[in-house]
């Protein structure tokens, strides 16, 4: 979210919790389905070629690190946008 988008919405009364408008679920469902299909293809390929199942550890670890880093980056970006929005609204009110 950009600073301009953060300014367009209220900072103090952001809808969170059970009264927030729910996000669409289809991106999460589609992402999980793609991941599961890809995981099954990898398992079938490893067993089909007769390779050791230990080879699946490296892609699984890489995927786990990727997901964790994306989540941390999104959290950090959200915090930075909130700080900028608060600073800009304080400056406008003064």
TrEMBL record:
<keyword id="KW-0812">Transmembrane</keyword>
<feature type="transmembrane region" description="Helical">
    <location>
        <begin position="29"/>
        <end position="48"/>
    </location>
</feature>
<keyword id="KW-0472">Membrane</keyword>
<keyword id="KW-1133">Transmembrane helix</keyword>
<feature type="transmembrane region" description="Helical">
    <location>
        <begin position="54"/>
        <end position="71"/>
    </location>
</feature>
<protein>
    <recommendedName>
        <fullName>Integral membrane protein</fullName>
    </recommendedName>
</protein>
């Amino acid at each position: 979210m950009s600073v301009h988008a953060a300014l367009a919405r209220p900072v103090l009364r952001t809808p969170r919790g059970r009264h927030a408008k729910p996000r669409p679920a289809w991106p999460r469902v589609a992402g999980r389905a793609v991941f599961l299909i890809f995981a099954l293809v990898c398992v079938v390929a490893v067993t089909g070629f007769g390779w050791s199942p230990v080879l699946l550890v490296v892609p699984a670890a890489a995927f786990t690190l990727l997901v964790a880093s994306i989540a941390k980056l999104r959290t950090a970006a959200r915090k930075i946008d909130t700080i900028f929005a608060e600073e800009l609204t304080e400056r406008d009110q003064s």
